[in-house]
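User: My instructor asked us to take a sequence, write out its structure as tokens, and then describe one feature of it. I'm not sure where to start. Here is the sequence I was given:
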Amino acid sequence: MPEISRRTSSLGTENAFVVLAEVNALVAKGENVISFCIGQPDFVTPDNIREAGIRAIKNGKTGYTGSAGIPELREAVARELGRVRRLEISPDEVVIGAGAKPFIGYTILCVTDYGAGHEVIYPNPGFPIYESQIAAMGAVPVPLHLREDRKFAFDPQELADKISDNTRLLILNTPHNPTGGILTADDLAAIAEIVRAHDQVWVYADEIYSRLVYDGAFATITAIPDMRERTVIADGVSKTWAMTGWRIGYAANRALAPYFTKWVTNTESCAGHINQYAALEAVSGPQVDAEKMRHVFARRRQKIVALLNDVPGFHCLMPGGAFYVWPNVTEACQMTGIENSEELRKRLLYDAGVAVLADIHFGQRVPGEGQHIRFSYAASDEEIERGVERIADFMRKNRR
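Assistant: Let's start with the prediction itself. The structure tokens for your sequence are:
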């Protein structure tokens, strides 16, 4: 049998889908499992957006489009990105892709060379595809630790210490997966001050949760002088409009847009024609349903944090955005004699029927920060109440 390449053998994955497979296997056996593991809205795509997709099919919008996306969508996305960030963005800066995820890899490919020792700094814990793509593209992953006492932001001095002559890219994610933390305007100003001193460093601003901020206004590094030109804005329709399966994302950067377009041509040819018209309705049509979903998430955030903080051994900060909480379960592990967060995750799944993710699914544990697990509160109020009660019951039964 011919060998598999080292690149492919070392490729990481997104463990939410691995755990989801475990959940599905248990459900197929008749087990009742309450799942908080998958990061997608539990709502159906709004009616007007689904109808736009149906119209596109009926109108024969079923062929290739230009690799950068249909002009109408690029124009609408430019307006939407600019409105949320209080910027003027031109349609020719925008490229449409099959989800926002491909632009992580495209950006790394555009600004690093394979095997040249180029470094990419990324948040840890963080979306696991960051580290996976950095390594697969032949760059050097450099984790930047998020701190609980900073509400899961990072110390700017740690960033300054990690930037070297080999650094080519800094990945920022706000609001953040998995912690729900946000980078404030002050955080971003401090980051910009550091990055400005290094002409070779690009910034990838993963802002897929930009419309899901609950306290104050969304802040972006692109609004800071001298940062927009070197920053890729990445966003999409998946989270705001409950469109994860439609696979439409977008990135904006004037210098890199032509190269992103080439990468799209080389990989996916173009995003789905039909789906682009659905996305056009999402970003330019009525926003009533999107706002309703945001209000529901905000209410659930309050509920799940309050409930988790009543569970023995659980300590949960209030997240600023997205739809995740990241409780510290160090004490819970000690109280039950469970070795670590991954063992706790397994026990909660198989003994309590509750599916969550462990901190190791999002990178290496941050030294000195203890043990954490992630809940997605993209679940009904009833599921949140029942799921946390199962966990509380597990703790009562297993406490030493």
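For the description part of your assignment, you could build on this observation: The chain has a mean pLDDT of 96. Try explaining in your own words what that tells you about the chain.
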